[in-house]
């Protein structure tokens, strides 16, 4: 089971996302979608530490973790979604990031970006992340859930 920590960062009505284009493994189709920044929790690292590290590594953005909002259990993965506060930085793909290295193969492209929350639709998100959209919209409206969502 792979455990990940993901950031839900809203700032000035926009959400921090990684826009991605990649070649489908099963066809010649080019897939295009958005995902929430984050990644695998490393040994000896807490989930909040992972979020801070991954957002900085992937996006060049510094965040502060407020709290856990949701846990998504899948057959081979568990995603932990954290409400994070934007501190500083502009979304950019760092030259030393795994994403930048993967992009060199010509099969993958990544673009860290801010997107207005109101413009984000479920269809734009990778299918794994679509259940999080209602939570994100509540968060953008200032409605912080009192308990951790589980789905």
Counted up, domains total 1
Tally of extended strands? 8
CATH fold-type name: Nucleoside Triphosphate Pyrophosphohydrolase
Strand content: 35-45%
Give the terminus-to-terminus CA distance: 16 Å
Please estimate the helix content: 10-25%
Total DSSP helices: 3
Tertiary shape: globular
| CATH C-level name | Alpha Beta
Order of helices and strands: EEEEHEEHEHE
Quickly give the CATH architecture.
Alpha-Beta Complex
Q: Can you summarize the main beta sheet?
A: 8 strands, mixed
Radius of gyration: 15 Å
- The helix-and-strand class reads alpha+beta
Unreliable sequence segments: none
- Average pLDDT value? 93
Name of the CATH superfamily: Nucleoside Triphosphate Pyrophosphohydrolase
Based on the model shown, name its key terms.
151 residues; alpha+beta; Nucleoside Triphosphate Pyrophosphohydrolase; eight-stranded mixed sheet; globular
Structure description:
- This protein is an alpha+beta fold.
- The protein has one domain (2-150): Nucleoside Triphosphate Pyrophosphohydrolase (Alpha-Beta Complex), CATH 3.90.79.
- Helix content is 18%, strand content 42%.
- Strands 1, 2, 3, 4, 5, 6, 7 and 8 form an eight-stranded mixed sheet that branches.
- The longest helix is centred in the middle third of the chain and has 13 residues, at 47-59.
- It starts with a strand and ends with a strand.
Question: Layout of SSEs?
Answer:
Blueprint: E1 2-11, E2 14-23, E3 30-35, E4 38-40, H1 47-59, E5 62-73, E6 77-88, H2 98-103, E7 108-116, H3 133-140, E8 149-150
Parallel strand pairs: 1-6, 5-8
Antiparallel strand pairs: 1-2, 1-4, 2-3, 2-7, 5-6
């Amino acid at each position: 089971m792979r455990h990940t920590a993901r950031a839900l960062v809203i700032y000035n009505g926009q959400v921090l996302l990684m826009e991605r284009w990649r070649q489908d493994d099963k066809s010649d189709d080019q897939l295009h979608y958005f995902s929430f920044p984050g990644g695998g929790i490393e040994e000896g690292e807490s989930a909040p530490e992972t979020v801070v590290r991954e957002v900085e590594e992937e996006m060049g953005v510094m965040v502060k973790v407020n709290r856990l909002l949701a846990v998504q259990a899948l057959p081979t993965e568990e995603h932990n979604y954290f409400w994070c506060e934007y501190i500083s930085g502009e979304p950019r793909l760092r030259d030393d990031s795994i994403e930048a290295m993967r992009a060199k193969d010509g099969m993958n492209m990544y673009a860290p970006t801010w997107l207005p929350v109101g413009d984000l639709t479920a269809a734009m998100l990778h299918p794994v992340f679509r259940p999080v959209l209602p939570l994100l919209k509540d968060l953008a409206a200032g409605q912080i859930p009192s308990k951790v969502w589980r789905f």
